[in-house]
Design goal:
There is one protein chain. By secondary structure, this protein is α/β, with parallel strands linked by helices. The protein folds into two domains: 2-50; 59-229, Rossmann fold (3-Layer(aba) Sandwich). It has eleven helices and five strands, in the order ααβααβααβααβαβαα. The protein has a five-stranded parallel β-sheet, sandwiched between helices. The radius of gyration is 32 Å and the shape is globular. The chain crosses the membrane at residues 12-31.
């Protein structure tokens, strides 16, 4: 009789253990699937998370003669110095006799087509020399910034250089651009601070005519831009 009862208890214990194993297995499987449903990454997801997306470091410099490197060659421009200093691609899209409206007209071909991550907009001298109204200049700068952002390109504004004969106009442009850039959280480059004194005169060796920089002047401008953009 005792043997029979013992056998019954063993059978009951075996059944109970079997049920417990099934329950534990079910809970484990359910918990694992629940974890994935809640966003718990598997190995492949973890690997993807650890892979960082590379930033687009390419820069387009859009501007006039000061961007091109006049009266020298583009190889001696501040753009070339910046490219060498930052060790990234910096495309020189500077041309002579350019106004902000000219930059707008070639934006698609010279900027969007290059697919840069950033753009340096360096304009204003051409507008001042051709008596473009300040309001029109402002409208064009805003349009260039809007076009940049709509194409996922970060805009950087370079202030126009003080220039003989149009100093007051340039001063008004620079003042407005600083205020606008602050409002829009835009990085500003003031190249004049790198090569000119408080009287808007080029410091020794940086210009031969007090209008355009020498190769030495452009080198100082490029080094300045590199310090800011780093």
């Amino acid at each position: 009789m005792r043997t029979y009862r013992l056998e019954i208890r063993l059978i009951q214990l075996s059944v109970a253990l079997s049920v417990l194993v099934v329950i534990v297995g079910f809970l484990g499987a359910w918990g694992g699937s629940k974890g994935q449903e809640n966003g718990a990454p598997d190995r492949s997801e973890t690997a993807q998370t650890q892979t960082k997306t590379l930033e687009n470091t390419k820069i387009v410099a859009l501007g006039d003669s000061f961007t091109y490197g006049y009266p020298g060659k583009t190889e001696q421009s501040w753009v070339a110095v910046l490219e060498k200093s930052l060790k990234v691609s910096v495309v020189n899209k500077g041309k002579g006799y350019q106004r902000t409206m000219d930059l707008l007209s070639r934006f698609e071909a010279d900027v969007v087509a290059e697919k840069p991550g950033r753009i340096i907009i360096f304009s204003g001298n051409g507008d001042a020399l051709r008596s473009v109204p300040l309001e029109e200049f402002q409208t064009n700068i805003k349009a260039l910034v809007d076009k940049s952002r709509s194409n996922n390109i970060t805009p950087i504004l370079a202030l126009p250089m003080p220039y003989p004969g149009v100093q007051q106009t340039i001063k008004e442009m620079r003042t407005w651009m600083l205020q606008y850039a602050e409002t829009e959280s835009i990085v500003v480059l003031d190249f004049a601070s790198a090569v000119m004194d408080a009287d808007n005169k080029y410091r020794g060796g940086f210009s031969d005519d007090n209008k355009y920089p020498t190769a030495k002047g452009y080198e100082a401008m490029g080094e300045y831009a590199a310090r800011v953009l780093k």
